[in-house]
Amino acid sequence: MNALLAQFIPEARELIETAGAGLLELERHPDQTSLINDVFRAVHTLKGSSGLFDVRPLTSLVHAAEDLLGDVRADKLALSADIVDELLESLDVLGGLIDTLEANEALAPDADGLTSGRIAALRAMREAQAGARPATAAGGPAAAPVAQSREPAPAWLAALPEAMRARVYADTAASGAPLTAWRFEPEEDCFFRGDDPLALAASAPGLVALEAEDCAPVPALDDLDPFSCWLRFHVLCRAGLDEIHEHTRYVYDRVQVCSIHPDDLVVPVGQAAGGEVCADFVEAAEAALAIGNASGLVAAVAALENILAPASFEASALRWLRRVLDVRGMAAQPLLARLARAVGEGRMPEAEDDARTDNAAPDSARSLAVDLLAVQVAILATATSGDIAAGRLEAVATTVRNALSAIGAADRIPGLDAALGTARTQQHHQPLAAFIGVLLSDLAPAAGAQKAAAPPAGEAGAAPAEARRAEEHRDDGKSGATRVLRVDQGKIDTLMNLVAELVVAKNGLPYLAKRAEDVFGSRQMSREIKDQFAIIDRIAQGLQVGVMSVRMMPVSQLFQRFPRLVRDTARKLDKAIELEIEGESTEADKNVLESLADPLIHIVRNSVDHGIEMPEARRAAGKAEHGTIRLAARQENDNVVIEVVDDGKGIDPEAVKAKALRTGLIDSEQAAQMSDTEAVNLVFAAGFSTRDQVSDLSGRSVGMDVVRTAVQRAGGEVWLSSRVGIGTTITLRLPLTMAVTRVVTVLCGDHVFGIPMDAVAETVKVARRHIHTIKDREAFVLRNAVVPLVRLAGVLDLPSAEADADGEEAVMVVQAGRRRVGVIVDGFRERLEVIVRPLDAVLAATRVFSGTALLGDGRVLLVLDPAEIM
Amino acid sequence: MPHDPKPHVLIIDDAITVRMFYRDVLEASGFAVDEAFNGFEALERMAEASYDLVVVDVNMPRMDGYTFLGRLRSQAEGAGIPAIMISTEAEDIDRQRAFAAGANLYLVKPVTPDCLAHHARLMAGQPMVGGRA
């Protein structure tokens, strides 16, 4: 796969993920402007990147989604659940396209068919609601930055048709998105090199306008060389400079690229008519502007427009006045004032000779921004409490983002957002601080010349101190910037396996030391081997921890799909359900999380489908109409524990028992003796389903037994507790990693077996006289609780060794879920770290053993499955 | 009628003259201004409307500026609104406290109109051409 595409695919997935999560969040908090901006930006970035490849259907679909989001963002459209549905569906389709792209390095031939329907649906959404504007309390979009410290806009902008400029202005002025103009003059003989200049221009990222013109007088037809290129292109793109440079990298010597500001498009054109009416207008307009009277201004414009010829310069200026007012309102006061004066003077006055706007000089604004950024770095470096940290991180990012767009450095915003994203996932401010550090070092030299200026009064010397601190931080920022490396998972898995092998191989050294002494009679040699073993042991452990930490992922990776799942399922069933997520920063091994994905989906679906009641039923039961499902993750020792809690109708143990009796799972005697907890946990038994009718949602053809099997295969366990009318809690417990298992080895007769340490609660010696027989079963009392006993020899049908002469039994208390059982063994041996390999072929059916492991001396250790012993 | 694209700022100070002064400065530089006289009322305001910036005093009755900022930063919505804290204390310890509470800028009184206007525009993402200050 080419490197660019390989880079694009994970980026695209991330952006689709971001947009999806943002949409769900936005649906819950529709008036949070930052959210719509996040979603829009993600989609916009995706559009820009996809333009680098030949994936037109994909780009068109992203474009359609972006247009729709743009309407929502500009308050032209209220975000309805239907729109969210459409957008989410489109994101799903995009995800599918990306999958295809990864597999085949090209879109499938039917990609057009997949996307065209979606595009039509998205367009329909826009048209359906066109004109219906919701009133929101949200402040309007930030006005775009004023052009500063950049080359003047190219003169050819004015030559572009006014209607086109107006359209682009309307699209870009409000958004503050970067806008780039470029001019492309292909070489005359470019066709002979297989170039397609028109396609290059037309496929530019974020294309908003494209004009072609002759670059020289075209000769008469007889003299015309049809194989020469006579064209020149003018292109406007809603993209950053870098993106355009990247796009045009093969023809860089034929293009002039320049970053422009939407205001640069505001150029009235035409022949000036002049006249008294225009002077009157200027007076009226300036009076209206002075007091911020927008409607007065509109009235004055309309009055004059009726009189002037549409082709005149003044009419053009008036049209621009209206457009600017429409898009940016009174915030664009300086530009509006210049346009008003243009009507009087018959030419556009320069921004600089407008004495009535106190322009903060570009450099001083810049140095103010640099100081502000330095303060943000200092803020991040100040310790704070956990509940404030996340909000503060967002506030710092917003402050920096706003400062960048205020000084016309909006092209750095995508980088900022990427750093913010990393900081959010890592839940640490470092990535953001590092990025601001980079910004400081990029912006500071330009501002440096101004540093001599005294700080504004009122800061009491804060800025210089802050700047000094920032100087120190800047070095940190440079060296401490997080370098993220994308590594193929296969490579890490290989490493992990090697490490696991190493951990096991090192266990061979103690045996070697023993042999050196016993067989070869060299105690000295034996000691040296042991010393060496200690060193290798330490390194191997460090290596293991290191590689493991690489494979650790936050549970959020697993949880992020659920907001969508719960929302869609609840909508389908007309239920109202809130999903709460807790502890999503808890980390576990990637494989463990992946093995959990399907069981969790099943459990959550079940909660939505069977747990939470219909709103009216909840109301009748005196509960809140909104059901709540809580997904919580936490770490306990070497395990990750995930709970799915719902406040639904709960599970009736009697109903479960009745059902189990009917299906012959239990007999009536068992039913009579069963505790409620044991009864509800019957739902995990194979082939059990409490619903006689299968609904299409939960896919009840597979029941909770599949969940249990999957969890157990990953070395974990699952149990359920429920109270009728109150709700149900399902708890999953899994090891943090699956690669290496710590086992205790036990003796049984003259065999050695392993038991996973996780399952062993404790080991005790119990005097034989303390072992009682209750209902034909042996048991003993451990700290006031009766613990049933089983003899391992009995379970495995092996001859048991003689008990200790002092009449004690070695008992290993094994815990699985909530149950505890004492297992009587003939003795304990060492604890080992082993790689448990599942039993295969003929032995796979053996229930008592979970697998085998290779010991250091080459023998095979059978590892017991604690749940089966019980 | 175009919708109002003005950035919204909330001024939080218990002194009415201070609020009037800030209001004049910020309205002149293109902001739509709301006021609150303590942190408590400010939180209520923020539940009703969304703001692009808050300017908050330290010492206020019922809920001071630090507490207000801490609440704002730890709430689910609008936690990321940039905040300017204006105080009479120039000590480093007070500045640290403001940063820990979640302020994005700490200014010490007296604050000049220009200093407030420029920082406010910068932090609300407004192009750096003030109205008449």
Keywords:
heterodimer; A: 870 residues; alpha+beta; Four Helix Bundle (Hemerythrin (Met), subunit A); Alpha-Beta Plaits; 7 domains; 6-stranded mixed beta sheet; 5-stranded mixed beta sheet; 30 helices; 22 strands; 17% strand; B: 133 residues; alpha/beta; Rossmann fold; 5-stranded parallel beta sheet; 5 strands; 41% helix; globular; Sig_transdc_resp-reg_receiver (chain B)
Describe this structure in words.
The complex is a heterodimer of chains A (870) and B (133). Chain A is an alpha+beta fold. In chain A, the strands form five sheets. Chain A has a six-stranded mixed beta sheet with strand order 14-18-19-17-16-15. Chain A has a five-stranded mixed beta sheet with strand order 6-8-9-11-10, with helices on one face. A five-stranded mixed beta sheet of chain A has the order 20-12-13-22-21. In chain A, a hairpin with a 2-residue loop joins β18 and β19 (819-825). In chain B, 41% of the residues lie in helices and 18% in strands. Chain B contains five helices and five strands; from the N terminus they run βαβαβαβαβα. Chain B has helices at residues 16-28, 39-48, 65-74, 92-101, 113-123, and strands at residues 8-12, 32-36, 53-57, 83-87, 105-108. The radius of gyration of chain B is 14 Å and the shape is globular. The interface between A and B is large, with 74 and 63 residues.
CATH class categorisation of the largest domain in chain A: Alpha Beta
How far the N terminus sits from the C terminus of chain A, by CA atoms, comes to: 52 Å
How does the helix and strand content of chain A classify structurally? alpha+beta
Largest interface: A-B, 74 and 63 residues
pLDDT under 50 segments of chain A (min length 5)? 131-150, 352-361, 446-482, 692-702
Oligomeric state of the chains? heterodimer
Approximately what portion of the residues of chain B adopt beta-strand conformation? 15-25%
How many separate domains make up the residues of chain A? 7
Give the CA-CA distance, first to last residue of chain B: 27 Å
- The number of helical runs of chain B is 5
Tell me the Rg of chain B in angstroms.
14 Å
